[in-house]
Amino acid sequence: MRGIILAAGRGSRLNGTIGDKPKCLLHVGGKTLIDRQIDALRSVGITDVVVVVGCQADVVRRSCGAKITYVENSRFAQTNSLYSLWLARPLLYDGFVVMNCDVLFHPQLLSDLVTSHHEDALLISYQQDEPLGDEEMKIKARRGRVVEIAKTLPTDEADGENVGVIKFGAEGARLLATLLDKRVASGGLRDWAPKAFGDFAQIRPLYTIGTRGYPWTEIDFPEDYERAVRDILPAIDPGQSFFTTDRRRVARERRQFGDRRSNQLGLDRDASMVRHPVARVS
Predict the structure, then answer these.
(1) Residue 232: which domain range?
(2) Domain count, the chain
(3) Dist CA 17 CA 207 (whole Å)
(4) Using one digit for the tens of pLDDT, what is the confidence trace for 41-95?
(5) CATH code at 82?
(6) What is the pLDDT of residue 13?
(7) Angle formed at CA 196 by CA 100 and CA 38, multiple of 5 degrees
């Protein structure tokens, strides 16, 4: 089984928190998010790791090192996570775990997912007292299976939030690759990867694995980052408290780079006519 990390994005919504660096290189407790994810994969025996790069691809390659396989999304500013995963499709067929690069999570969550007897499953954080907002990728589940997954899912129909870590066995991976092909062919270049996961769940069971209260967070905005270093990291590793260190790093990088916002390029007028590059694997 391979580990696939989707790390092509720029992270513009962090509003200068990491200067002009890619989102996956955000430091939390002295380590980058992507280094933490690679370590988590290796801790459960997944040593074949693929990183889909885009924004400042060479910088990410230098940070992660030579033991990683890289797939480059040269159209990262015009596409989204579904397209990045589609580019990696030749590497999916033996089964894989895929994760978004902006998720900080307790390693036990990945262990729970990988050791589950279900071939195809995702991590879900079941809804508690606070209602889910517009930004959350919401999940409707029945009998432990995904029924629907979308940000637009009405809050009162949602059972929880997608953590952003999903696994597919070999058979499921082949089906997903076909569904990714269809989405891209129909022009869904800016779709989130969960669009294809929702398609999958309509054909083949996609099971839910609860977080069991283990800490995790997705980092999209500056306030998410502060919560990550203030609350989530100490809960993952009680021996570490890096809030002051990371806050100083944020202040230093803001002074150096300023509050830069990336300008997202629009899609070609007719997405269905785009000539898709063959992914460069290195």
Answers:
(1) 2-10+18-281
(2) 1
(3) 35
(4) 999 999 999 999 999 999 999 999 999 999 999 999 999 999 999 999 999 999 9
(5) 3.90.550.10
(6) 67
(7) 20
